[in-house]
Amino acid sequence: MAGARGIYGLSGSGIDVESLVKGGMMSEQKKYDRLYKKEVETEWRKEAFADVYSAVNTFRSSMSDMRLSSRTKPMTATSSLSDVVTATANANAGVMSHTVEVTQVASNAYLMTASGQKVARTNTAAPVSVALKDVAFAGGTMPAGMASGDTALSFKLSNGTGTAEVKFTAEEIFTKNLTLNDLATRINNARFIDSDGKKTALNITASYDAVSDAFSIVNTKSGSDNKVSLSVDTGAGSAADTTALLNNLKLGQVSGGSISAPLSFSAAGTTSTLEAAGTNASVKIDGRTYTDLQDNKLQGQIRCMSIQHQSHYNVITGNELTDSLSSSIHLAYGSSFNTVSYNRIRNNRARGEGLLQAYVGASKNDFYMNEVEVGSEGLPKYMIYCAVVANENSFWGNRLSGPAGRAYIAVESAFNSKLRRKSHRGYGLRGADDHFTDRGMYGVRIVGNEIRATSMNVPVYVLAQVGDDRGQYPLLMCELSGNQVQWTGRGPLLELSESQAGLLRQIKLVGNEFAPVPRRDQLVLPRGGKHFSEMVDRAIIPQIEGI
After folding, report:
1. Is residue 339 part of a domain?
2. CA of 279: how far to CAs of 102, 229, 257, 285, in Å?
3. pLDDT tens by residue, 166-191
């Protein structure tokens, strides 16, 4: 039985099994150690190559930037009267001097008790009283039938964009004895509900000067679209007393250092209105007149600002443009040498053209540092659009965000409704805008813009040479450089289109940033690299080179 059981291990043999196993593994361990050392060395090499690649990339980017004229040809500007006029120069500035003549300064809408006048009192027994009951009410007493909770005085105050109501109850007038100073305070605190549903100040200030017995109301923003408007509902029970109050202020319009005679109310339907508006500035630079359209607030227009029909040398800056149905700033029909800068565009209803656009002969305009923000309910065809003999327009440093219907930025040489390309402006227009040109287009610059795109299936950039039944119209020497795009869409990033091969060329594509890097099928390039005169573009040049 003992032999049957046997000995099935070596535990009882006296042999050092552990030493035998270790000795047998030593050669294999040495092989493993050699492989591990190679792995570590490879990782070190990889990290070193990555550092070199990063350094080379940084160097290449710097050298690419050095190609830009802004780096190689810096220009500066000085003013002989820097407290009056300042200037900045870009790389394209010439070496020359300019003369500047201010032909008209911008003014504010300003109402003030007229010269030689004082605030009148309906209660003649209290000729110097500042109480509203004496200024507006006969005998300074509450009219028969009026209760303390009733509205005693009420008018609407508008700045040209928003409107607020200013009102007083009978209790405030006859029990609390509110005064002209309280009227000024209530005007100063007036608010209206803006397009975002927020309470917004009218930027209208009022004051009462007891020494001169004069009242004043002024819009703190200049320009012809910024107003002071006082209106009364003639059907309201308080209409007669409110009108008496406002008339008794003897308000004249301040302009050019003088005050007009007291203004009268003008009636239209059931509303009676007293109104003043500011004026725009105008300057001559080297004999050319520029109109200054600045610090305006425009809302709910078809086009907020339309600069057309040979309108030159306008400065459109610092405006707040909200909810245009079509273009926010529109330049067309030969309007050239205009500057469009530092405007804020907010839109939640657009369905029409480009929010910033220049077309049909609008050349050599400069659009820069504008902020365009489209809400989820807005869908303009384009954020920037340039077309049809619109030569040498520049769009630089603009910030664009939100959705677009056909493309974010589009440049086209003509309109042709027969084209089936959905990014084209003429698509679906049934011939209404055909045959607007007999020549090509050149020199549009799209530089240093920031785009945060949310529309999934529309192109970010479109450059299109368009022809029609009358001829072909080349698109030449355009530039896309230094732009930044954040976009996770599935449509084309860059769409080039030619009605005739070879007529879209000499395009400069330099130093753009795209995140994430686009797929190959997001670059619609019918002739590949042949379109380009210069390609130095970290993110997409590997995609282009293989075409």
Report:
1. yes
2. 14, 15, 14, 19
3. 999 999 999 999 999 999 999 999 99
